[in-house]
Fold this sequence. Notes:
The chain is an all-alpha fold.
Amino acid sequence: MHKDRDAALVNDCQRGDRAAMAKLVSQYERPVFNAAYRILGNTDDAADTTQTVFLKVFEHIADYDPNFRFFSWVYRIAINESLNQIKKRHHQEPLADSQASPWRSPEEHMESTALCNRVQGALMELNEDYRTVVVLKHMSGCSYQQIGEILQLPEKTVKSRLYSARQLMKKSLKATDL
């Protein structure tokens, strides 16, 4: 991401600049929503989580450590909030067509196909640790190093979890003849 630009915006936010806050939200809103959606499997929960993430970011902007990348800090908050949502639900449920918004973007329309539903279902069967690394790697495009920073894990652990998650998804998808 844009480390220098983010650092300048964070500094402006720490001084109370609302325009800088709006720029940070604009830059990270979609990736945070996508990560939350992939973990939660529900657009409404993902939207609520995204809103909560940015509230927390701006409440704690003074606590941000500039030695770390801003996007890693934001993603860590997003992952934690998503996992907290799951704990509140006490169960995992795959996205059903009846839960989808009637106003679909092209991406949401594509996800409503049978193939995407099966992949999403396999993703939702994974435990939170595995699902999180899959989402960060394959849906958010993070590197192993970035995932390690976000989840505060060694890179080797990230690779191991991702391998195990892929194997579990493969097994699940083969069981559904995919």
